[in-house]
Amino acid sequence: MNILEKIVARKKEEIAAAKTVKSISDLEKELLFARKTVSLATALKQAEKPRIISEFKRKSPSKGVINGAVDPAKVTKDYANADAVALSVLTDIDFFGGSFGDFAAARQANPGIPMLRKDFMVDPYQLYEAKAIGADVVLLIAACLTPGEVVSLSEKAHELGLEVLLEVHNAEELKATLCNSVDIVGVNNRNLKTFDTSIETSIALSEHIPDSFVKISESGLKDAETIQRLYQHGYKGFLIGETFMKTVNPGAALADLQNDLSQFSNQNPLVL
């Protein structure tokens, strides 16, 4: 059993337990369930420069603890002040150290910015959870879902007013799972078998993603030159977590990158 299979198996246990505590009807009564969502896809479509989706992540299976003692409200507020287009907050407990508490703190501190519930979504119940905690976008990972599950979960997400980010790692996953009920396609540059990252993954897949879908790149993004290069290949958004979270001040790290992006763009307006 690989790490993804372990995570999904554990997730199904968590969902079964959660259903005994709160029904879907209970979730629908939560205060934030009625909240009008904010569109990340629209913000990215309108972007005239690379936009950063900044992630709050305490740990990961590959790196262990990255930054365990940080305050989600402060970090995400700093991200927003540094012009993040959206926030991604982990809610997986066992493998990423996330929680609904982290998401709630970030949501309260940033009521108007799009927020992605970053988790392993395998059951419609989780979509109701996402809506109830104030998420705007949910993640569907092609590697742990069948094509049929992607369709059914993405359609249900739309019924609830949530946008869908479909994450793929290769051309096979993209071809099998891309459907009209997906809003954003995220190419993860991390090899799930080796955990190595290569932006060539995003470059190779860029021409296979129809222009009707917003494209974002994920993992292994550390510098302005890389981001600008991918921007020239049609990527509008860039999801970055570890690069920021491993620093003492993640918000300041984002601000520094934004400054580097601005300078690099001015110096290299036609970089390909």
Automatic annotation (TrEMBL):
Task: Give one GO term, molecular function aspect.
Answer: indole-3-glycerol-phosphate synthase activity
Q: Which residues form the Indole-3-glycerol phosphate synthase domain?
A: 4-256
One GO process term, biological-process aspect: L-tryptophan biosynthetic process
Q: What is its EC number?
A: 4.1.1.48
Keyword Lipoprotein attributed: no
Where does the source fall among the domains of life?
Bacteria
Asked if the record carries the keyword Lyase, the reply is yes
What are the record keywords, sorted? Amino-acid biosynthesis, Aromatic amino acid biosynthesis, Decarboxylase, Lyase, Tryptophan biosynthesis
* Pfam families the record matches: IGPS
Q: Which InterPro entries match?
A: Aldolase_TIM, Indole-3-glycerol_P_synth, Indole-3-glycerol_P_synth_dom, Indole-3-GlycerolPSynthase_CS, RibuloseP-bd_barrel
Reaction catalysed?
1-(2-carboxyphenylamino)-1-deoxy-D-ribulose 5-phosphate + H(+) = (1S,2R)-1-C-(indol-3-yl)glycerol 3-phosphate + CO2 + H2O
Pathway(s) of this molecule: Amino-acid biosynthesis; L-tryptophan biosynthesis; L-tryptophan from chorismate: step 4/5
The enzyme class is lyase
NCBIfam families on file: PRK00278.2-4 (NF001377)
What the entry lists under HAMAP family is as follows: IGPS_B (MF_00134_B)
Q: Which family does it belong to?
A: Belongs to the TrpC family.
- Please give the name of this protein: Indole-3-glycerol phosphate synthase
Please report the organism this UniProt entry assigns to the protein: Dyadobacter luteus
